[in-house]
Amino acid sequence: MTQSGDIPVEDFKRAATRAIDWIASYLTHPEEYPVLAQVRPGEMKTALPASAPKSAEPLDGVLDDFEEIVVPGITHWNHPCFFAYFGITGSAPGILGELLSAALNVNGMLWQTSPAATELEEVALDWLRQMLGLPEHFDGVIMDTASVSTLCAIAAARHALSDLEIRERGMSGRSDLPLLRLYTSEQAHSSVEKAALVLGLGKAGVRKVPTDDAFRLDAGALESAITEDREAGHRPFCVTATVGTTSTTSIDPIPAIAEICRREGLWLHVDAAYAGSAAVIPEYRHVLDGCEAATSVVVNPHKWLFTPIDCSALYTTRPDVLTGAFSLVPEYLRTGVDGEIRNYMDWGVSLGRRFRALKLWMVLRCFGTEGIALRLREHIRLAQQFAGRIDEHPEFERLAPTPLSVVCFRARPAHIDSDEEALNAFNETLLQRLNAGGQVYLSHTTLDGRYTLRLAIGNVRTEERHVARAWELICAEGKRLASE
Ligand SMILES: Cc1ncc(COP(=O)(O)O)c(C=O)c1O
Fold it and tell me: Are 269 and 350 contained in the same domain?
């Protein structure tokens, strides 16, 4: 018989206990699973019914299917041998934060719709700001992803061009608008260009500045590009620099870029989505040098700060401009306290907002500044050790400096030597075979036309033995491939 209301609380308790037991066991032994899901496209879909059940099913049966059908289709980001992209960790305190936030199910659009959600967001972001060494004049907001943080920052930068009245008049059908130009490096994340697409600036609105031999934005080339654009009648308005590029974790020369932005009156947005976290380590605080002069900075706790995805912290010195770009308050969202508090719905695109601050706050408390620094420092040590192994081996080479916890390298077997095309094909096959084995998962990039393997360390469960195992597998697979 179908009943109304939620499922009985006793059923919930039993299933929740089973789920927590499963999570505890999973997090203790993530190595029991292949890192990369060993399924074929469509395999999971065909294992499930084509339509939803007509009558209620017991939670236990659903959990059985979770274990038997869903989990085999999971790529295990929790696996200590997950070395692809940027390794991330949904740590225990973060998982509990997610659980409790799901239970509360508040929508933090307004202060009044849950004062604790807004105020904890302010507190957690201020704690994080201090941990990163950003000055007090930065104020923050939590977004889902760095892509959205960057989108909002660029929208604010455009809104700062008040004479163009874009908020009121828009951009289309206007012959009085110059070409608006945003500058970023050739190594910047695609989210910068995507933001330009969304904001109607188009690809033509993004000028990609060349990088130096360490894949850092060339500040001299930036300056020339801005001068050239001004002479052509274009309107420069924003520079997006990167601290920790996606491919090589290169750190753009922020102090020099900030000086150019100051002189030129441009908004400087810094994408420190991955590497910003390194500033928590006292001896790596310098990664954010120059950011004190930026207008906005994004750091993703869901990347290298042990907070479950999603959680992106956007800081800005111009919250007035950010809210000026986004605030639009219909009557039904007005409250009697609007003048005294902040309503985070005014700080970005979405009205509905998850209570993400809870998990961030729990992570910061449960690890502490020292605990976070200790873990990040270890990731960097492991990456440097791996880089050393690459450097010592005659048939491997590093293809970029290793400032943090990501190593870019390739195999260079003697029989291929310097045939670049053959080297690319060899390394691509090497990566495919390594990943298909299910014991490790690495990703790739291209640097100066060279197919490059990336080993990224960022998982809280990764130990020296896991990186050693990856090295063993890479050497063995490389040898096997070379002998074919
Ligand atoms: C440097 C950098 N910025 C931005 C992003 C986008 O992050 P998100 O997935 O949070 O949008 C990435 C993703 O890896 C990145 O590496």
Answer: yes
